[in-house]
Specification:
heterotrimer, A mainly alpha, B alpha/beta, C mainly alpha, B: 10 strands, 40% helix, globular, C: ABC transporter involved in vitamin B12 uptake, BtuC, two-stranded antiparallel ribbon
């Protein structure tokens, strides 16, 4: 038998005990809690998830309380449910992280993330994660917007993100592109992705909503998948696979100033600010403009919206275009942070699926929270993984594992409504 | 065929805080023709779902011919001899009529062979005068024909008790006659029926015994004549007067006119 | 019956044709040299592999309605199992392939059990996550899997093959050709047989309506899990053989691109027919391979312009017919499309030179470099297939091949049905009237 040479410098025994303790109680909580709830004829749809979290964080303590008292576990997004959210989801999650952190510290004492006096390293990882997380949230917001209106998940979402990045790069970059003002670049990005989105929706998705398609669900998946294929390789064929990276899109003086003030990578800060601005505009659009209100009303009740004179077909088109545009603008904001190649879209797609499933399909707040969580998890995961060589290769896996677990435990996500 | 005996004891189903079915007990002996009526939301479909295993009762027991079936999976219950249709027809749309019929036939026995089942399917299609469409896709059938197809599928399953959920809704009058005929013939062959319908005229005309549900409770169980004069039933329907429920009128109509 | 006979004859001829390809020069010495060589053989071997993949995906998706992206992950799993067993325990290809098949089947069983509750979109998302996790893990665990460089393994027949009268060495293409070809035939026959038994019948019922199927006595859970396990084993088996044939497996074999290729093949062939999707896979893979070269810009432009002009003319024709109130039969439409293609070709031959010049001038103005006179199709061919996937889905939801097969096999049936219906008479008409 060969053993991995990497494993020998670590302290795996005691760490494994802590780790197994967490896993054991998570499984116990996750398996027994829904049974108890079902036995008492209560809604068990969230019991698996919260049972597992409770077990992981507190061992037998909180699960025992859940089994004994069987409190209501579906928290509507309201202030009054804040204490329950704290007790049943936030606190045990923190305990879980603390336990795993402890196990990790025992396992690999010299790791930068756990070594004493290196708190700032962990902090910088977390803040990096938050900065990017807002943009992850924004991409997913587009996807969840499309889902809440059209009822489909677009598998080409990441490709819009990729195209957005390229448009900004070629409009703004002085060497390869036109060298124009970044604001023009952002507007162009929004326009291009919006147009591609509405043309696609109009031409190929609309028949689905007119009842011309035999298997709408599968049709939508396959069709958006075809679009992803088409967009990715169109870009690859025309622009090549050479990786591109935009320099910071603001004047160098401001960039320097940002770096001094925040102490964080300026490109990420700029991206973060673009993300916040877009969020603000989106909020205004959805709440104070007629098309925005139409969007929201259709997402709540299609028939009622149709009765008051909103054409749901046009709203579908608008929603798809907007969703694509949000992805595109996030790409534009991140092209200065990451290296850009035609295949970044696939990873972004996968990541947005993770985010919307985590946050709950169709929930806008959930998409933002999910984006922040995934941003932090990825940044911390990569920064702390014991073997830096493998860490980067594993970057998307951290999110995907969370994703698979959430899908299995509670397919409607943290803030999702029943479908 | 063995004697049919379905025994439902204190059946109860809660959804969260809502009690959808409350302590319902009844028995079926032999090939009875039973109608189940009740206002919207009285729990008729829930009772069906509990009987066929699509839902698990919160408490209470169900015995079919002495064998306890509550808590069993729908496919097990279907094989034991309790078949149902759905309120909204659920044919296998992208399969031909014949294939639709083969599914329950083949599922009934693990050793079923396609030839025998096919032969039986043709007999059933013949009985329904449906064989000219045997090779059509189910999706190309009209709503009424899909109901007929569901009835055919049930015959292939060869159950002892057949629950029909709204078999007459949206059906062309000519097909309606065919469905009457189907129910009477199959009933005469020794199978019990539970009919659920909003169509009071039909239910009163067809069934020999009525179960009346209201707010999840069984409020009456007797012959149509008894039920018609049952003060509790009249009360239940009267109580809905201001909610503009049509059945109120129907019941009174029938009381005055006697037989329809 | 007659239609079925035609299909049987066509199928047997196709099989004989493929079986004779390696001996093309022995039978037809006058064939031009270079038509059949090692590269052709290689392309065909891999296309057989894809045929099995597409076919099994059809069983999973077209029959059972289970939308899974995990197919390539199961394939990779089996390939890595045999590769790692060879690397660490020194087992031979046969043992490894069998073990790989088993491992793929077990994982298929587990995934099938896990996803019981998930439907369409959620199922697709979960299987994507599973596939991506598998790929990233193999990419990262370099010690075990060789990482991005891939994992080397023994050739399929490490010592060659000695038939007594003729012997092949380990790099000869003929033995793997027939192994893969035979496997394809056996596996597709096996899956078609399955699809025609109660198993296939129940899968289709489950696809249409799970609850109704359960109410009709079908054990839904058992069949859903079984179909995952069986298709995974089928995929695992061919994947193991393929890995040993090309003697390497890498995480790149599991990227979503290959999965989308399998999906495109199955959709274009026809999701609801195992044979149609297999034929679709062979045709598409061979086409894709032969598109992987450079083409002269002018000829690509000519083809593109022919398509554009042809489509415009066709649409104009349809529009004109509509305006004049003419009802077009299928034969007229076929004639119209052939006619517009020919005229379109004529127009494009005349106009291709000025248009190309115009485009290349514009390109020069924007980018400052000349338009290359050769176009590398390696990327564009995938663009074309993405487009083909979308258009097929939109306009030919049953695929391109399957409707033809179905029409041939059901020839005469339609007239028969109509006659029967006329004889049966009244109710149908009353229904139609209502």
């Amino acid at each position: 038998m060969h053993a991995s040479p990497l494993l020998q410098e670590f302290n795996s025994g005691p760490a494994a005990i802590i780790f197994l303790w967490v896993v054991f109680w998570a499984v116990v909580g996750g398996v027994i809690t829904p049974r108890v709830y079902r036995k008492k004829d209560l809604d068990a749809s969230s019991a698996t998830l919260y049972g597992a979290i409770a077990g992981a964080g507190t061992g037998p303590i909180l699960p025992a309380y859940l089994w004994y008292k069987t409190p209501e576990l579906n928290f509507p997004w309201r202030w009054s449910s804040l204490p329950s959210i704290l007790i049943f989801s936030v606190l045990p999650s923190i305990f879980t992280f603390a336990l795993l952190y402890w196990a990790f510290a025992v396992y690999h004492p010299s790791n930068l993330c756990v070594a004493e006096g290196k708190g700032s390293y962990l902090f910088s990882q977390v803040s990096n994660g938050v900065l990017v997380g807002v943009l992850y949230g924004l991409i997913a917001l587009g996807l969840t917007l499309i889902f809440s209106i059209l009822g489909i998940v677009s598998f080409a979402h990441g490709q819009f993100y990729m195209i957005g990045g390229y448009v900004l790069f070629y409009v703004v970059d002085g060497k390869f592109g036109a060298g124009l003002n970044p604001v023009v670049g952002l507007l162009a990005t929004g326009l291009v992705t919006f147009l591609i989105g509405i043309i696609f929706e109009r031409a190929l998705l609309r028949p689905m909503h007119q009842g011309k398609v035999e298997r709408p669900g599968e049709y939508a998946i396959l069709l958006t998948f075809g679009l992803a294929f088409f967009l990715e390789y169109s870009v690859q064929a025309t622009l090549g696979t050479n990786p591109r990276k935009a320099s910071a899109i603001l004047p160098i003086g401001i960039v320097k100033w940002l770096q001094d003030v925040t102490g964080m990578p300026p490109t990420r800060v700029i991206g973060f600010m673009i993300g916040l601005a877009v969020l603000g505009i989106l909020y205004w659009f959805l709440n104070y403009t007629w098309p925005g209100k139409a969007l929201r009303s259709v997402s709540q009740d299609k028939q009622a919206a149709a009765v008051v004179g909103i054409n749901p077909l046009n709203v579908n088109t608008l929603a798809f275009g907007l969703g694509a545009m949000l992805a595109g603008i996030s790409g534009a904001a991140l092209v200065q942070v990451f290296t850009w190649a035609p295949n970044v879209g696939a990873i972004a797609s996968a990541r947005s699926f993770v985010v919307i499933v985590l946050g709950g399909m169709g929930s806008l707040v959930g998409a933002m929270v999910g984006g922040l969580v995934i941003g932090v998890v990825e940044a911390v995961g990569v920064g702390c993984f014991p073997d830096s060589g493998r860490a980067l290769a594993y970057q998307p896996v951290f999110g995907l594992i969370i994703f698979a677990i959430v899908l299995l435990l509670k397919p409607t996500g943290l803030f999702g409504r029943e479908l | 065929m063995s004697e049919i005996h379905l025994q439902v004891n204190n059946l109860t189903k809660d959804f969260g805080g809502l009690r959808a079915v409350n302590n319902v007990s009844f028995e079926i002996h032999g090939p009875e023709l039973i109608g189940m009526i009740g206002p919207n939301g009285a729990g008729k479909t829930t009772v069906t779902n509990l009987l066929n295993g699509a839902m698990v009762p919160s408490s209470g027991t169900i015995y079919l011919n002495g064998q306890r079936i509550d808590g069993n999976k729908p496919y097990q219950i279907a094989r034991v001899g309790l078949g149902r249709t759905f309120q909204v027809t659920r044919s296998f749309r992208r399969m031909t009529v014949l294939e639709n019929m083969l599914v329950p036939g083949m599922a009934l026995h693990t050793t079923a062979n396609r030839k025998d089942v096919g032969k039986k399917a043709w007999e059933v299609l013949d009985f329904l005068t449906f064989e000219h469409q045997a090779n059509d896709y189910a999706r190309s059938l009209s709503g009424g024909q899909q109901k007929l197809l569901e009835l055919g599928r049930l015959l292939m399953l060869d159950p002892q008790i057949i629950i029909l959920d709204e078999p007459f809704a949206g059906v062309h009058p000519k097909l309606m006659e065919k469905i009457y005929e189907y129910i009477n013939t199959v009933n005469a062959q020794g199978k019990a029926f539970i009919l659920i319908s909003h169509d009071m005229d039909t239910i009163f005309a067809l069934s020999k015994r009525l179960l009346v549900l209201d707010f999840g409770s069984l409020i009456a169980d007797g012959t149509p004549e008894e039920v018609r004069h049952d003060p509790v039933v009249i009360e239940a329907y009267l109580g809905e007067e201001d909610e503009e429920d049509v059945p109120v009128v129907d019941v009174y109509h029938m009381v005055e006119e006697g037989e329809i | 019956m007659k239609g079925k006979t035609i299909l049987w004859i066509a199928g047997s001829l196709g099989i004989i044709f493929l079986a004779l390809i390696p001996f093309a020069y022995d039978i037809f010495p006058f064939l031009p040299p270079g038509l059949v060589n090692n590269y052709t053989m290689h392309v065909l071997i891999i296309s057989f592999y894809y045929a099995v993949l597409a076919s099994s995906w059809s069983l999973l998706m077209g029959y059972a309605g289970q939308f899974s992206f995990a197919h390539m992950a199961f394939a990779g799993l089996a390939g890595y199992t045999t590769g790692m067993m060879g690397k660490f325990w020194g087992t031979g290809p046969l043992t490894g392939i069998i073990a790989g098949t088993m491992v793929a089947g077990i994982f298929g069983l587990i995934v099938g059990l896990l996803v019981l509750r998930l439907r369409s979109t959620y199922l697709a998302l979960f299987t994507i996550a599973f596939a991506e996790i598998m790929r990233f893990v193999t990419n990262a665990e370099i010690y075990y899997t060789g990482g991005g460089n891939g994992l080397q393994m023994d050739p399929l027949l490490p010592n060659g093959l000695d038939l007594g009268f003729y012997s092949f060495d380990s790099v000869d293409k003929i033995p793997p050709y027939f192994i893969m070809f035979g496997l394809m035939l056996i596996l597709i026959a096996f899956m078609s047989w399955l699809a025609n038994t109660r198993f296939g019948l129940f899968l289709r019922a489950i696809r249409e309506d799970e609850e109704a199927a359960a109410a009709m006595g079908v054990n839904v859970i058992r069949y859903k899990v079984l179909v995952f396990a069986i298709t995974s084993m089928v995929v695992g088996l061919v994947s193991g053989v393929r890995a040993h044939y090309i003697t390497i497996i890498s995480p790149n074999d599991m990227i979503i691109l290959w999965m989308s290729l399998v999906i495109t093949m199955a959709v274009l062939g026809g999701l609801e027919s195992l044979v149609a999707s297999a034929i679709g896979a062979i045709v598409i893979f061979v086409t894709l391979e032969y598109l992987k070269t450079n083409f002269a810009t002018t000829s690509v432009m000519t083809i593109a312009l022919t398509l554009i002009f042809g489509l415009i003319l066709y649409q104009l024709g349809i529009y004109a017919a509509k305006r004049s109130g003419t009802v077009l039969k299928n034969i007229h439409k076929t004639m119209l499309s052939v006619g517009s293609a020919i005229v379109g070709l004529g127009i494009s031959i005349v106009t291709v030179a000025p248009i190309t010049t115009g485009i290349s001038n514009a390109y020069y103005d924007i980018s400052g470099s000349l338009l290359p006179d050769q176009i590398d199709m390696s990327d564009w061919r995938l663009v074309i297939f993405g487009l083909a996937l979308m258009l097929t889905l939109r306009f030919y939801q049953n695929g391109l091949l399957y409707p033809i097969i179905q029409r041939v096999s059901r020839a005469g049936h339609l007239a028969e049905t109509v006659a029967k219906r006329d004889a049966a008479g009244t109710i149908t008409e009353a229904e139609a009237g209502s």
